[in-house]
Amino acid sequence: MAKRSPDPKQLVTWAIAGAVIAASTWFLSFVHIPRLTANGEGFWAVLWTDRLRFAYFAPFAIGLALSLWAEHRFKRGLKGEIWSEAELEPVRVLVAKPLWSWTSWLLIGVAAVAVILSARTSGTGHIALLYLLLYPIQTAARIRQLVTPKVTSAGGLKDWQNVKPIHSDHWGEQPLHPSE
């Protein structure tokens, strides 16, 4: 049985979807979670009383892992050149859409409103994690950079070894005044 190569568009979709899942966990910080009781003191007691708070990390970790896994498989496929240009064209169209930027900016707008309307914003670090909402834009930009064809310039000073030294027959002479 032949090994089936992954679909590049599907991998990119999974990478961006994982980024959106990871970024959207920022909104869980606004959910009121009560402290549960535990018997005893120490590290394990703190973990047990705050177990619902630590559950915030599950969607973030799942989204981040999904995004990084799909992006890694996509990079490996590009490096191994397992896809043709025709197969990569839908990926170029997908990441060129402004939808990904608008999604992140919409999340940031909703987050700003949530911070303003939230009575619990003082000292909770909501603003510090706001950068998380830019993760979908960053993922789409990295993939867009990967699928953009490299442009090679014909001119320029790329080959410095073949550049001849500057030479002038008039070095050291006094310049002529225009009136002379």
What does this protein structure show overall?
- Helix 1 runs antiparallel to helix 7 (135-147), helix 4 (57-79) packs parallel to helix 7 and helix 5 (85-96) runs antiparallel to helix 7 (135-147).
- The relative contact order is 0.16.
- The protein has helices at residues 8-24, 43-49, 51-54, 57-79, 85-96, 99-117, 135-147.
- The chain is elongated, with a radius of gyration of 27 Å.
- It has one domain (8-149).
- The N and C termini lie far apart (88 Å).
- The model has no long low-confidence stretch (mean pLDDT 78).
- The protein is built from seven helices and no strands.
- With 180 residues, the chain is mainly alpha-helical.
List the helices and strands and how they pair.
Elements: H1 8-24, H2 43-49, H3 51-54, H4 57-79, H5 85-96, H6 99-117, H7 135-147
Helix pairs in contact: 1-4, 1-5, 1-7, 4-7, 5-7, 6-7
Keywords: Membrane, Transmembrane, Transmembrane helix
Transmembrane segments: 12-33, 53-70, 99-119
Helix proportion: 40-55%
Mean pLDDT: 78
Query: Approximately how much beta-strand content do the residues carry?
Result: under 5%
> How many structurally independent domains?
1
Radius of gyration: 27 Å
Identify the overall geometry: elongated
* Cα distance spanning the termini: 88 Å
The major beta sheet can be summarized as: none
Output the helix-strand order. HHHHHHH
Query: Could you list the spans in which at least 5 consecutive residues all have pLDDT below 50?
Result: none
**Oligomer classification:** single chain
Structural class: mainly alpha
User: What is the count of DSSP helices, taking H or I runs of 4+ residues?
Assistant: 7
Number of strands: 0
Keywords: Membrane, Transmembrane, Transmembrane helix
